[in-house]
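Hey, resending since the last one bounced:
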Amino acid sequence: MSLFKRIQNIFAKPEPPVQEKSILTVGPGDVVEVSLVTYQVTGKAVNHSRHATMLTLQDGRTIRYFYIEEREQTVYHLYSAIDGRLESVDEVPSTIEMEDITYHLEEQYTGKVNVMGKTPFQASGEQYIWHYQSDQRQLLRIEWQDGRFMLYEGETVLPADVQVLRGT
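The structure tokens again:
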């Protein structure tokens, strides 16, 4: 090694350490494990005002949706899309009964979401969201954006059951 190279290495700034990915910073192409199932992240919708993220996860042909919200404690919900139809945003009920399960409206809000990758809504924009919970702690989520409804059934996931396996 030449003297010039040695002097240059002395004054060179060290490269910053590589930031490890967390479940809140993953994006399309990353691999995560939720409840012992490995998924590839194919899409992401972020609501910055709520500190919430909805990841689209794919395992083979199975597509699931993983909701993460930072509150006092980080909240994790794993959803599957379900078939359902609602007529209007103004007519979303406060109680919904499906398959002998009664869901009660827990919270309703709106916010701007930014999307990337494959998500149910392909463009960023204003989104309306309704969260429901049954007495048996089962979850129901309704989203509306640009004239389209999406309905999801889900469950709460423990933080210990969430892990980032590989980030891009």
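The chain is about 5% helix and 55% strand.

Sorry for the duplicate.
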